[in-house]
Design brief:
three-stranded antiparallel beta sheet, 1 helix
């Protein structure tokens, strides 16, 4: 499954957020900055748990997370 990244739309504590495409759908892609400390990684995965449960017409759906590259 191919992910294509397009323009940057935001930047946060953990990295940048890009507009992109995944499985022929518009998505938001968060790309992390460098190496995370254990504490930062734990906070990120807390965010992931929340995003995985969130369902709203106002929020993009969460599809997954990976530490592997290429995506």
């Amino acid at each position: 499954q191919k992910i294509s990244m397009k323009s940057k739309i935001a930047e946060g504590n953990f990295g940048s957020v890009y507009r992109g495409n995944y499985q022929n759908q518009s998505v938001a892609i968060k790309e992390l900055k460098g190496h995370l400390t254990q504490e930062a990684e734990a906070k990120l995965f807390d965010e992931v748990k929340i995003m995985a449960q969130l369902r709203s017409h106002y929020v993009v759906n969460f599809y997954g997370v990976t530490k592997e590259q290429p995506y």
